[in-house]
Specification:
Length: 280
């Protein structure tokens, strides 16, 4: 029961990132550039403090930082800007759908050949994403926002794959946040991002960085060793559902039938691909 509660709390933290980001940008409390920078800075501070209390060290001078921090910056930038036009639930669905599909594709190419069931699951998941994103009549999903969130999903998938070889997950994550901070800020400045943040915007970004990102990632690394890989993959599929419910209840977003059906296809396809059926 304790493991279940900790895992559920972690998934709620992941979904809260989408809700907090969308809330800050949609209300005008923050611009995407400021939110991303403050979020990374807050996460770096909290994770560094956790490493310091554990009497660990930050491996800043490490080859893993190139890939880890680069992928984290890609995720943060795409994630923040995409929520200018995407609802919280739709953004989370695209993000975690792309994450799982990317990780499945990479492991299929670098590892063993995929089975027919896994291929079928991937095709169903892709069809679900296409169904949600395909423009029909007055229902239009912003293509720029979708592409940015897709890039964020690829970045998070790359970050997760790189983290498999990290000897100290918490220290490595803290180092990635620190190195990613100037990369994220520089990329947003080059892209012409403007710094417009109110007190509420700073508060939402700090909560997203320090609590739902920093503490959420730390909690995830705590429960991850206790979960088998397939379970760890499947439980993340709950994040879009939580984000959709949170967007409806807290942000007044509309969960259309199209979004619900698409989410069911994406989550069902990914579950079919990653779950291992036990023979009778």
């Amino acid at each position: 029961m304790r493991l279940f509660l900790l895992t559920a709390l972690t998934m709620c933290a992941f979904a809260a990132n989408s809700i907090l980001n969308r809330l800050a940008i949609d209300t005008g409390a923050s611009d995407p550039a400021g939110f991303a920078v403050v979020r990374v800075l807050s996460g770096a501070l909290v994770l560094s403090i956790l490493v310091w209390f554990r009497a660990g060290h930050l491996p800043l001078r490490n080859r893993r930082r190139i890939a880890g921090a680069g992928a984290l910056s890609m995720y943060m930038i795409g994630f923040s800007i995409a929520y200018l036009t995407l609802d919280a639930g739709l953004g989370a669905l695209i993000l975690f759908g792309v994450v799982q599909i990317t990780m499945f594709a990479v492991t299929s190419v670098t590892g063993s050949a995929p089975t027919r069931r896994q291929i079928a699951g991937a095709v169903i998941a892709l069809a679900g994403l296409a169904y949600v994103l395909w423009p029909v009549g007055a229902v239009q999903v912003d293509p720029a926002g979708s592409l940015l969130m897709t890039a964020a999903g690829i970045g998070w998938a790359a970050y997760s794959l790189v983290g498999r070889s990290e000897p100290d997950a918490l220290a490595g994550t803290a180092a990635n946040f620190i190195v990613a901070l100037p990369l994220t800020a520089l990329a947003l400045i080059v892209a012409g991002g403007e710094w417009r943040m109110t007190g509420a915007g700073y508060g939402l970004a700090i909560v997203s960085g320090a609590v739902t990102s920093g503490m959420g990632y730390a909690l995830w690394y705590r429960v991850l060793p206790q979960l088998v890989p397939t379970t760890a993959a499947v439980v993340q599929l709950s994040v879009p559902i939580i984000a959709i419910l949170g967007g409806v209840l807290l942000l007044g977003e509309v969960a259309s039938l199209r979004l619900i059906l698409g989410a069911a296809l994406v989550l069902g396809g990914i579950a079919l691909a990653v779950l291992r059926l036990r023979p009778r």
